[in-house]
Amino acid sequence: MIFENKYIQQRIEKANTLKDAGYNPYANDSKRNTTIEKYLNVNSDVAEMENKRDEKRHYIVSGRIKFLRIMGKASFVKIEDESGMLQVYITRDNLPEGFYNEIFKKNIEVGDIIEVGGFPFVTGKGELSLHVDSFKLLTKAISPLPEKFHGITDKEIRYRKRYLDLIMNAEVRKTFQIRSRVISLTRRFFEDKGFLEVETPMMHPIAGGANAKPFVTHHNALGVDRYLRIAPELYLKRLIVGGFEAVFEINRNFRNEGMDATHNPEFTSIEFYWAYKTYKDLIEITKEYFQYLFEHLNLPTLLPYGDLEVNFANFQEIPLIESLTTVGGVPADVTKDKERIIAYLNEKGITVKPGMNLGQLQGELFDEFVEKKLIDPTFITEYPVEISPLARRNDEHPEITERFELFIAGREIANAFSELNDPIDQLARFEGQMAAKESGDDEAHEMDSDFVEALSYGMAPTAGQGIGIDRLVMLLTNEHSIRDVLLFPAMKPVQEENTKEDEE
């Protein structure tokens, strides 16, 4: 049973004692009139007063008990709400007769949520506190809080029981407050630029918009399978065909793939599409976007990230093939020859999948020798057409596309390109992807005939981009696991993990 623990049973007994004494341990009539942060800010002048107290000011604050030191006739309690921590001073003589000894001392514990009223004063140690003259229990916590909260084992608890993590660690709450702020600022930035926020389906008849393995579900009413969205791209571009010229969606995507420090099966990104623009315009708006975030989040241009220091005043642009040599150290005569690339990779102990074309092999070189070295913000441009099925070919060099990916601190943050709007070329690209799928590539793009038909009605020259919100927040908060910026990351079942530990 969930409540068999003896400490929980003791707390349940105390809750029942309170009920018997006429006190509701789950009251719903809070009279709070300020937050802890506001209380501390408004009363910061009390320390300058002669007697360091002001009984004319009266406040009611609420919060969870994080520390409790009970003495004979008085107690010090520290309570915490979302905004901060406050010390309150509770005395026997300032509460109703018998309450302090019979109710407070015997039944109130760390973890309980209380409401206290009183006036501001400063203790002998110089701490602005609240001198209590009224006390109400709002919520009795029947599960005790953990005493310690660190280490590898506790990290698993943090992810599984995020509510405990948030209770015990104010820095974690700060990370998710920043995440919320990033999403809000992102929305405001694009709206101010004239983009329209839209919503597109999350269940797709075709898994399209990216090369990824989808989750499959079943639509009972229609009697057909559907795929959870791996990307909103093809729907957003249909809107450009329909006449909207600048759209964006902050969206949840789902990819049935591996999990590691930077990948979670469901993730958040923003995708935006801009008619009459090219990927070069997207490079400029991306720089503006980062400047906007840094200004509003009050972040330094030189941003620490683990042992690294990322210089956001130093955006660079490098063509992919050039980066293989200048950054990755791959000999120039290797980078444009399929057989030489295979030999080079084999020499380095890297297994090459059968049937990979030249563009895919160049992408493999980049992944292995370049990506991790891109610390300052770097736009890698001119991707091979073979690994860019939705990007527009370069008019002068049709073997490459007008595409970039943005890398920061060795990780991809954004992907963008001038969109392919030639329906004949798009059909041929889809057919090439279908051939790759038949050859065993389960991440190859599906044929989307309706999208090709939409393009046949004419899509204005357009540029589109996706930015990974999760990885962006990791970067801005100096977190190194995607689990630390997701409130509820995907986890293996507890029983499965316990079995694995037993085997080890």
Q: Architecture of the largest domain in CATH?
A: 2-Layer Sandwich
Secondary-structure content class:
alpha+beta
The rounded distance between the terminal residues' Cα atoms is: 28 Å
Describe the largest sheet.
8 strands, mixed
The CATH homologous superfamily of the largest domain is called Bira Bifunctional Protein, Domain 2
- Anisotropy-based shape: elongated
Task: List low-pLDDT spans.
Answer: 497-504
Please name the CATH topology of the largest domain: BirA Bifunctional Protein, domain 2
How many beta strands in the DSSP annotation?
18
Number of helical regions: 15
Measured on Cα atoms, how large is the radius of gyration? 29 Å
Write the layout of secondary structure elements.
Elements (H helix, E strand, L loop, with lengths): L5 H15 L15 H7 L16 E12 L3 E8 L2 E8 L7 H9 L5 E10 L5 E12 L12 H9 L1 H7 L1 H23 L3 E2 L5 E2 L11 E4 L4 E5 L4 H9 L4 E9 L11 E10 L3 H19 L4 E4 L2 E4 L4 E4 H7 L11 H10 L10 H12 L8 E4 L21 E6 L2 E8 L4 H16 L10 H8 L5 E7 H9 L16 H10 L1
